[in-house]
UniProtKB/TrEMBL annotation:
UniProt-recorded name of the protein: VOC family protein
InterPro entries (alphabetical): Glyas_Bleomycin-R_OHBP_Dase (IPR029068), Glyoxalase_6 (IPR041581), VOC_core (IPR037523)
Pfam families in the cross-refs: Glyoxalase_6
Organism of origin: Actinoplanes sandaracinus
Domain of life of the source: Bacteria
Lineage, opening ranks: Bacteria, Bacillati, Actinomycetota, Actinomycetes, Micromonosporales
Domain VOC intervals: 4-120
Amino acid sequence: MSSDIRHVTVDCTEPYELATFWSAVIGHPVDPEDQPGDDEVGLTVPAGAGPELLFVRVPDGKPGKNRVHLDLQPHVARDQEVQRLRKLGATLVDDRRRPDGTGWVVLADPEGNEFCVERSAAERHKKVDHRSTP
């Protein structure tokens, strides 16, 4: 037998506020039963769409670099999504984009949890003629 991943849990100091940020990032609503001030707040995920993100209040701040992080593949161009996420409150941690268009961008959510933004599926499948690029 095996197990399914039910939640990806994020320790944080303000669960509702962080859930609201991530709701805007991935487009899944905050569970309607969860309220500001709750110690646990989840995002509602459609059946079969993967594990839920669950935000749990802890008394201490983030101690260092994440050992596990999310990699996002946007539905729009990577650079466009990075701009949108920064407007939502994400901060730039590291820019790993390469001149040939590959690579990713490391951002942090409002509580400092790192995540990566990769290229969109369209960007990954786009044929690039490097001979015409200086």
